[in-house]
Specification:
251 residues, TIM Barrel, 10 helices, 34% helix, globular
Length: 251
């Protein structure tokens, strides 16, 4: 049985960890370096660091902060935000990232996926997709969810996989920060139509939601932020409960 992964996410703005609801109304959630160490020490399987305003502000990811976070963790570490070239990825990997996550830049220039995969390998490239359900159709959004496209979530996910991406990080904008659970129907469809791992993001509010993402949503990993940052769910307790309910997790 494939082990399911629990992944805390550090959304970074102005050097601090923040968390909002439906991608807006951000509030401070603490120092990213300190949080990263706690998660690494308490059983997180991986860590994701997203510089959420880098694309909007047209600047590169905070590579110095990436270096500081990387020095505190001994688990796989994914970094995203403002990445648009092979050179950007090279800098981040040298500063301690294990994988990179691209989003808006991949939509604007899909060949970037192929270039990064050719240079660094599929295992290193995660494509993040932020989507919102509009009139029954899941529409891809860019620039931290601010700019809608005409792309369909499932069509874009298939293209991403065909171009060699190693994983997809799907965030439901409708569910983000609501604590009402993940978008399990969309997750299940992604998992059924693709062969690469799908990371669920957006909506975690309790331990049952994680189980549902793995069973109903068929996700390979579940990512969350506020429930971990504000101490509502501890990762060791979550994993113990999942294991007790028959979900294969690393304890």
């Amino acid at each position: 049985m494939i082990t399911k992964r629990i992944i805390p996410c550090l959304d970074i703005k102005n050097g601090r960890t923040v968390k909002g609801t439906n991608f807006v109304n951000l509030r401070d959630a603490g120092d990213p370096v300190a949080l990263a160490k706690v998660y690494s020490d308490t059983g997180a399987d991986e860590l994701v660091f997203l510089d959420i305003s880098a694309t909007e502000e047209r600047r590169k990811t905070l590579s110095d902060l990436v270096l500081r976070v990387a020095s505190q963790v001994n688990i796989p570490f994914t970094v995203g935000g403002g990445i648009s070239s092979v050179e950007d990825v090279d800098i981040l990997l040298k500063n301690g990232a294990d994988k990179v996550s691209i989003n808006s830049s991949a939509v604007k220039r899909p060949d970037l996926i192929n270039e990064l995969v050719a240079k660094f390998g599929s295992q290193c490239i995660v494509v993040a997709i932020d989507a919102k359900c509009i009139d029954g159709n899941w529409i891809v959004h860019l620039v931290g969810g601010k700019v809608p496209t005409t792309l369909d979530l499932f069509d874009w996910a298939k293209e991403v996989a065909k171009r060699g991406a190693g994983e997809i990080l799907f965030t439901s904008m409708d569910n983000d920060g609501t604590k009402d659970g993940f978008a399990n129907k969309a997750l299940a469809r992604l998992s059924e139509e693709l062969t690469i791992p799908i990371i669920a993001s957006g909506g975690a509010g309790n331990k049952q939601h994680f189980k549902d993402a793995f069973t109903e949503g068929k996700a390979d990993a579940a990512l969350a932020a506020s429930v971990f940052h504000f101490g509502e769910i501890s990762i060791p307790e979550l994993k113990n409960e999942l294991k007790a309910q028959g979900i294969s997790v690393r304890i």
